[in-house]
Every structure is written in C-alpha cells, then in structure tokens.
Amino acid sequence: MPPRRKATTASQAGQRLALESLLRTFAEVARWASFSQAARVLGLSRAAVSAQVAQLEQRLGVPLLNRTTRSVALTPEGQRLLNQTHPVLDQLDALANEFVHSRGEVAGALKVEAPEFIGTRLMAQPLVAWLKAHPQISLNLRLNDRIEEFVGQDADIHLRFELPTAHHLRYRPLGTFRLMTVAAPDYLRQHGTPRTLADLAQHRVIDYLNSRTGKPYEWEFEAVALRGRLRSAEARRVTPPSVLCCNHTDAALVALRGGLGLYRDFPFVLQPLLDSGQVVEVLPLFTSPPYTLYALWRPAQPVAPRVAAFVDFLTECIQRAVPGAAAPAPSQISAARVRPKA
User: Fold this and answer.
1) Beta bridge partner(s), residue 280
2) Does the residue 15 lie in any domain?
3) pLDDT tens, 39-55?
4) Contact 112, 155 (CB under 8 A)
5) For the chain, what is the domain count?
6) Whole-model pTM over 0.70
7) Which residues contact 33 (CB under 8 A, 6 or more apart)?
C-alpha cells in the first residue's frame, strides 16, 4: 500500500496564504521603490509594510532590499525574486478571474479612481443606471485632482489624461477632448472681449492647478481652421495674469459665473452654463491641443468581467456626452494596449 499523503494542516495553508501576501507587499515596494508609497497603495501603515518585507527576508534567508534614508533599491536576490514573483501573482489573478469570467458574471467589488470633474460631469448620472443594471457590483469610486500623474493607488481602474512613463498596465484610449475659453457676460461688459491671443495679457484668468507641479496649467492654443486655412502662426502658449488658481472644478465655475475672469475647460463641463447663457465662448478661432483620456488597469488574462464592463460603460458615457469624442472601442477589451516597462 503506497504511503498516504499527509493532509495539509491549517497552519501550512495559512503559511501559504501569508507567503502570497508577503510577496504582494514586496512587489509593491519594489514597484514604487518606496515603503511609504507601497503602504498607501496597500492601505497599510509604513511600519506594517516594512515588517512584512523583513518577515519575507527572514523567511528566505537573504536580503531583498537595500535601504537608506533616501532610497530603496533591490539587491540581486531581490531582483531575481521580483522577476519570478510577477508571473506567479499574475497567474493567480488570472485564475481567479477565469472562474468569474466562465460564469459571465459582472459582479464583485470594483475600485475606480478618476479626476473629480470626470466623475461628476461624465460618470455620475449614467452611473446610477449602470449600477442598477449590475446589482452584484459594489463600486468604490475615488475622485481626486490628479489629471496626468500616476500615483500608485489601490484601484482596479484608473482614469488619466496621460500615460505613465513606465508601467505594466493595460490601457484603452476612451476619447479625445479640447479646451474652450469662456467668460461671464458681466466680466466681458467690464473688461471687453479678447479677439486675439495678445489681448489675453490685458485680462484676468481663472487657472486650474497642476497637482504634479504645484503651478497653474499653461494656456496653450492651436488655431482653428478657417475657410480651409490654418492660422498656425498665432498658435502658441501664453501666460495671462491669474486672479485665482484652484484644483477643483466647482470652485472655478463659481468664480467664472461671478465674473472673476476668463476660464478654460472641456465643453462637457461648460455646456450647461453655455446653454443657460451664464457664460459665453471667447476666442472661438483658437482651441487647445487635444487631450486623450485613458482607462488603465492591471494586466490579467482573461480580464475580469466587471473591469471589462466598466471600461465599456466609460466609452459609452463619453460618446453620449460628447458625440464624436469617443475613441473606437475594440471588439474585445483584451485588444487593449500594453505599454512596455521603461
């Protein structure tokens, strides 16, 4: 009679689960080269993250990270472990998604992180109907003032107007937008209407704060084609005098309606104010360069149905709000692009 295989004890099963948790923590620290950033992503304290990495090092018997007061770097052993860890964790994620995908269920917890004006102006209203249509989804929607920079957040889907310079995420372009310039009628009666970009030097503007640089976004213009001819000679960046700089759309719109200055934003944000006559467009022959909105998510094959369904929902939101702005949707989300690591 062959020897009976020993049953896995609860302790052994717990150790395996603990190992997966330790590896995920280590991978996040290596990904961001920062204990603090990994702690924010994982929702843990910095001390807890440091303790988990130390526990993994003790368990493996080798140092994985070189730590200084200013930097965190992988040791050769750490780099080797990281190279082998990513495929293992991706396979575990894909395995979990496969069972959900086989049932075709759009269900489970979903975390989405997006700029505040996208969440409030594009997503909020149609989101109610989408959630009613998918009652098994539990959505955690996090809105912030980040438009371009990618700060590691523990989310399933991120929305950004710029792709991170180095990442392993999948992404889909959702749509392309341009900024328009507007002002309240009261402001124009008092200060006049700008006709050229040079006129902006004599006007006050309401700026949107770039959270990455801590400075206002530049006012960059491209000439609009007029009767088939592009007045490109006048396309340039200008820096009008700023009377207010803030990082929230609602605050900027209050100032705009109050006649504080000129303001630039996307048409889907400004359209209700234009329709009601509270603001009017100025400098219609000049627009901004195009800005593309991307949805980014972690790679996994197959993609979880809840992620695929929500990215499709986002594309539909943009198509309804700004006809013609939405990027063509691939027939399957697996066709989304992957930017290689730098």
Assistant:
1) 183
2) yes
3) 876 767 888 899 999 99
4) yes
5) 3
6) no
7) 71, 72, 73
